[in-house]
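Sequence in, structure out. First:
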Amino acid sequence: MYIFFKQFTIFLIILFIVSAIIGYGLSNSRDLSEYYPAQRWGEFYNQEKGSIDLIFLGSSYSYRSFIPSFFDSLLDTKSFNLGSSNQTPMTSYFVLKEALKYQTPKIIVMEVCENILIKSDNYKSGIHNIDFINSLDIRTGLMLTHFNLSQIVEYLMPIYRFNSYKTWMLKGSKKKIRHLVGKGVYSKYYNRGYVATFPRTNYREVDFSKTLRKVNRKWEFEQVEFFKKLSEICKENGIKLLWVVHPINPSIFNNINNYNELSERYKALAANNDVEIIDFNLEHTSIVAQDFYDTDHLFYEGALKISAELASRLKRKKYF
């Protein structure tokens, strides 16, 4: 019996090692088309150490809206967008910790929205970063805080993970995991973390005027707590932190009756963390419904507008 258990244990160890080695190769070659985490982190690590002054964090509202090269041309700075799909404050915390190992930014602009504050499951948020981050301690922290026990086992057995979720592939494979941003719409990686979205010739504008959105929902305690942790890291490193609420498509926003209640909660959360906040849903901007390709995400032309609006406010408030 002892020999059996010994052999079985050795078998499991070998299986784990082989799975980890093969899985590592798969994770580096898989294609998360239109999310672009590999390109984003790869380009980030190629930046000259200590050269970035401004870093953007947040969800897809961030990396599909804030164009670093445009900010740089207006503010005479160098910036990078480390937003990622479904990025929660918990994920932003670990992304920032990794970024600070390579860069010494003066300002962090963090996109804030209720959709990420209500999230209790951080798996998707974590999985869009964990395979592409260099530091073992940050990957370990992400795994232990973002995944439950079954997800940890799945993560540590990447062959199963990639097969289970159909996300694995070798270079040259015709299979792709695609984020279909909408019919008649396509995206491409621009540079420094920003992803641009454009209409195709067959694009037809969607009418969202009758779409209703519920706001002012219950926020997850852990997400609120990680906002606090983020602000503390920034203070410890002498970094100015600014929260930005991304605009909602005006066609939908006009149907929201209790947005002011949500806005007051944003302000209270910012005040509790001693952070300034800009809510573009309550600011006068040039952004119109036609700048959006869905309920919240902006076309490239809309991203130029919001980037110009935010850059103007950063300059006016003497962040630069």
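Second:
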Amino acid sequence: MTNKATVIEVVAHKGGVTKTTLAAHLAAGLAARGQRVLAIDTDSQGDLAKVMGMQPADDLYAWLVDKAAPESVVQYVPNEVYSTMDEPSNGELYLLRSSVQTWSIPVKERDPFVMSERIAEIAGVFDTIVIDTAPTLSMLDSAVYLAGDKFLLATECEFLSMSGVRDTMAQIQKFGARRMQYNIGKASSVMGILPNKFIARTKNHRANISLLEMDFPGLVWSPITHGTKWSEAQNFARLMWAYAPGGREANEANAFVSRAMAVLNV
């Protein structure tokens, strides 16, 4: 275990790009491979909890505003949510849930460093912390973005979604500079851009990914193919390795987790 957890933030400034699904699979995939992982939901919709078979709750609010002890709000995610008996998890996955009061956190707690400070208190307990960010800009973004070491950008293979990648990159660079300025840590960096809902036979999708690769060489990961199993699995509160092990979707999830581990050098 490292002395300080690496904080990865999964971002997309557009709804409906399966950002939460990707964040859940990244966190669970790292846990399955032996890490102790905490997933944090910063979206008031609370969908990360739903994906993992739990009810949304205002645990993030309690942690940041009420200064609740981590052990009173962090939930253990059962192995059966993301692994099978044939291929059990080798690590542990935990979740800090969000719900309707999340929107009011920056009103009640105005310290922009509150997320960084609270994460620092538990950074030695986990190997990796994966944060599922909100798709729309809010006052909470400052605290969230300042806490991130690495960023994974999720995007659809459509023009409007991909056109927002450059703006998101600029925002990450801005907060990375502030991390250095305020001595929070090293400047944050983009670990990758993950296109999803890819339809290989669609010429437009192939062309858009090629343009993305030209704009951001070396950062574009292999796309996640469009498939109904991603949404089907949510109905059963299971991640892909538990819902359809060995299938194409599970293999693609394995591939992007492997890419993340390579970038993190773990």
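Remark: DSSP finds 13 helices and eight strands in the chain.
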